[in-house]
Amino acid sequence: xxxxxxxxxxxxxxIGGGWVARFLQNGIDVDVYDPDPEAERKLGGLLDNxxxxxxxxxxxxxxxxxxxxxxxxxxxxxxxxxxxQESAPERLDLxxxxxxxxxxxxxxxxxxxxxxxxxxxxxxxxxxAHPERLLVAHPFNPVYLVPLVELVGGQKTALQAVExxxxxxxxxxxxxxxIAKEIDAFxxxxxxxxLWREALWLVKDGIATVEEIDDVIRYSxxxxxxxxxxxxxxxxxGGEAGMRHFMAQFGPCLQWPWTKLTDVPELTDELVDTxxxxxxxxxxxxxIRELERIRDxxxxxxxxxxxxxxxxxxxxxxELLNAYEARxxxxxxxxxxxxxxxxxxxxxxxxxxxxxxxxEFRYLQVLGDATDAVLFKLGLDKDYVAGGHSFYTVESHxxxxxxxxxxxxxxxxTQVLAADAKRLKLFHTISNETTGTVVATGEHLLLxxxxxxxxxxxxxxxMAARLEALARDHGALAVPAAAGRRVGEPV
Amino acid sequence: xxxxxxxxxxxxxxIGGGWVARFLQNGIDVDVYDPDPEAERKLGGLLDNxxxxxxxxxxxxxxxxxxxxxxxxxxxxxxxxxxxQESAPERLDLxxxxxxxxxxxxxxxxxxxxxxxxxxxxxxxxxxAHPERLLVAHPFNPVYLVPLVELVGGQKTALQAVExxxxxxxxxxxxxxxIAKEIDAFxxxxxxxxLWREALWLVKDGIATVEEIDDVIRYSxxxxxxxxxxxxxxxxxGGEAGMRHFMAQFGPCLQWPWTKLTDVPELTDELVDTxxxxxxxxxxxxxIRELERIRDxxxxxxxxxxxxxxxxxxxxxxELLNAYEARxxxxxxxxxxxxxxxxxxxxxxxxxxxxxxxxEFRYLQVLGDATDAVLFKLGLDKDYVAGGHSFYTVESHxxxxxxxxxxxxxxxxTQVLAADAKRLKLFHTISNETTGTVVATGEHLLLxxxxxxxxxxxxxxxMAARLEALARDHGALAVPAAAGRRVGEPV
Lengths: 491, 491
Description:
The structure is a homodimer of 491-residue chains. With 491 residues, chain A is of the alpha/beta class.
């Protein structure tokens, strides 16, 4: 992590509010300054959605949220800040005025980042006495889920400021990309702008509706781009000869007069009406808030599916998520004569079945993750597995005692029933913290194995000693009444 | 399904080969004509990857694959064809010559579709005596996974031909979008072309590398576009005021001189070298075949995660996938005095754990899906659940007896141990068909419940009769020795 403990957010709209959520969920305190009298109310709804999404995104432990305060003046909001994130409206004069004020109020070591999606940092820093601390940090909506942040320095920005900002945003689970040269709109919005103009022409000329264009995107290259970008995808399309072949084959298409991008469609009332009406039809009556949740749920699912890619090593945004979770997980302590509490999870939307409850196999996922947490504590890490040994579960018994619904938080307590150099018998109890009830128990027999032969084999000295110590500690606990049951045995 | 049983594929490269895979996996016979003497060898590798991906994409039953034949002449390849898919190189004169030949050889009722990514159907059909049967059906790579196909008719194309083609491609699990007016490059490639040109400028001007541009895409809007398109995403960004507000707020940006798209970068040797070298660096030594598999694995994961979205109803490409699987599943027959065989699944890459085997909870997923298949056969459908009743699993016992690796095919046999109006006790056996071994068994007790009270309640007459008939049929079978075990009980 970094030494940044308190951030001042200037402007609390969709982007500023997204930053507030991202900072709070990482345990950072936030003071907000926004002259809009409605700002606090509007931010509340956004933070609800962000909390809901973050609880699902991170399956392991999460930091205690930071403290949020609204401040009546810029000066109050800046008191004690380590970092300033500005997300005011996109007007150069307004932003320059703000940066001059911030510059006068905050000590020179405080970094100042602008969320502008297109203005040049050299122009933004012009009125500042300490311009070296200003940079652009341009995020993407929803800021609390989408990892990218583009970092762009101006002519007077210190390289050290860019480096400090990069480390800070990376510590928040984000993907900072430092753009080599400042240009209007940087990289992401240049690409989006090009596509947006072409899309407007297609609607204006009656080639396709808003919904058809969206379907073209999400049923084709959108699926590709969630995990690989334009160039990597084309590299594959070029076949074994790779990128040079692709350029030779498709390069000439660039000479064709395909796009109408030499010209900008005029945003007449008629075109705005057409787009607004087609967009209404496409929404099928779903409100913005409902669409926002669907978007967030799907983003979480996609990022989690990418996190499980490559045998759990992750790919792209999923690899980033794994590294972030591992950092949040940190270390574990010693054992005592009390049940282990090593795993919590919240119920994702894609864990729900047609009955409206958490589906059966997700219970075993939670139990299995709790078992993995016990094994991790015992020293079963990647090196241990690479050394040719592991633990395999050979038998499980699950009792379903209650229900869990979307968003509920589950916590697992684990008791070791028996352990020696070859065997480990665990009893997990899953509580639903949201409803205050026990929802399931799991009894599991694991064997220590030699992976090559696939047969049980005694653990080495160190592992055996840890297994025995854990069994000894837990031997003082009462054996749960439900241990040792057959399916359907009378209570 | 449609009445199309045999397709002739003309041109068996990356796109033609992708079509071959898509047709074969839907049980359609394919005759290929490609004058390249290397075509058959090249297609083999592509089909291996496609089979691997399709086995993972579809969790339920799959059709028996169609028969593939290479033919030495266009005439032989066209014999008996119901449909022709042309994927020859992108040269108008070459394609026109081909369509004149196909037109002379194939009876007039045979539909002819071109995979061209930019040529106009009106020009392609010019030399044909039966131009009404020609249309463009433009797919996206990899054709065996990406659902979109753009359908574009020319001036002489019959509306009926477009409709027949639409139904055919939809039956293959694809998303056909009919483009209202023919324009060069249609819709998808217009959008891609706009973005591609801008990306080339960014590399040429040294603003960002190939890898940085790809990261900008896949860590931001690529994640959004896998599930919602450009307009829907902006609708949400506009907040409660929706699209009109977004246009009012961001429309003016279109007047800014942001993009350099008024001009086309010249593909000098220097630019091609820069891109090829940056692309090599980005690939980190992964071969095209390895990247292709990573891409396919991720596409499968993303589509499957979207299929589980919205409480299993699915969203976008996932909703489409659910409908396709339901169609492939079809109906089930009556019960007999033999175990039920209602569920098969193949082991996806994201089912594998750090030991290199299928992870624990996926066994319960396979068992739960098999239970769902039994319940579906008993008449538990959406209407039944909507009527306020369902079955809940209350207790499970799993034995792990073997392993499954990536790509293995699992098949479940189910025996009903007991059933009455309130209870159903099942015993599933999961076999690994790839290794010919039993890998797990599951014993499960389910209760018929009133969903409102969450308590056991007797099933209605019809359901109770079906439960009892199934129990009676299976009463003739021997009880499995492993039924009724405790965890760790001696064998």
